[in-house]
Design brief:
alpha+beta; five-stranded antiparallel beta sheet; 6 helices
Length: 239
């Protein structure tokens, strides 16, 4: 007869039993922890959620802008500024002025007085400015007519030629004489007491050689005559 081996099958614990056991163990662990202290996992989460301290702001120091580059030394300008260079001026109404540092410059100007009113301060008919950076500017009756930079290698020749052009510029003498049109009220012209003439607000200042008056100023004579005729008729009608 064959002997049959009997295998004893032990009953397995159900999932419900395992879950209950784990819950009881977790409960015992929580009871053993100090009162009011959260579990370790919650402490880690709380630490992770706490905002980090921002880094201390560094003080920003504003640096001053760099100084402008110094002007290159030009032999002609230095000789002209210090005096050895002698420039022959066209007449005694011209004068030479030297501006001290830091804005070194040479100013040549032609002065003019009011013809019939010595109480008015003198004015400049023409002005020429030369800086140590070789910037050349020319004004005629306060109007900028030339602005350029001189040649650094041929400065003397360039300056003398440019200055001669300014001296030889022909200036418009203006329109009608002020005394002949004292009662005229005009919005397009003004009284130029240095020339003792009316000057149009659109006066070109510089005119071609051989001319005396620019076109806008030449219209003033006819305009004033029409203005006086029109106003004289109004006076007669009102009387």
């Amino acid at each position: 007869m064959e002997t049959k081996t009997q295998v004893k099958v032990e009953p397995q614990e159900t999932t419900t039993t395992n879950n209950a056991t784990d819950a009881e163990a977790q409960k015992r662990e929580n009871n053993n922890s100090p009162e009011g202290s959260p579990p370790a996992k919650k402490e880690c989460l709380a630490k992770n959620k706490s905002p980090s301290n921002p880094p201390a702001s560094e003080t920003t120091i504003l640096q001053p802008p760099p100084p402008p580059p110094p002007a290159q030394i030009n032999i002609f300008f230095e000789l002209f500024y210090d005096g050895p260079y002698d420039l022959t001026l066209s007449n005694r109404s011209w004068g030479i002025h030297r501006v001290p540092p830091p804005n070194r410059a040479i100013v040549l100007s032609e002065i003019t007085f009011a013809l019939f009113n010595v109480a008015i301060s003198p004015s400049y008919k023409k002005q020429v400015i030369l800086t140590d950076h070789l910037k050349f500017k020319a004004f005629v009756l306060d109007k900028l007519v030339v602005e350029k930079t001189l040649d650094s290698e041929n400065t003397q020749e360039d300056f003398e030629q440019s200055f001669a052009e300014i001296v030889n510029m022909v200036v418009c003498k203006g329109g009608p004489i002020i005394e002949d049109n004292q009662d005229v009220l005009s919005r397009c012209a003004f009284k130029d007491f240095y020339s003792n003439r009316w000057r149009h607000k659109s006066c070109t200042i510089i005119i071609e050689r051989g001319e005396e008056v620019c076109r806008p100023c030449s219209y003033l004579d006819k305009y004033f005559q029409e203005w006086m005729k029109y106003n004289s008729k109004e006076i007669i009608i009102s009387n």
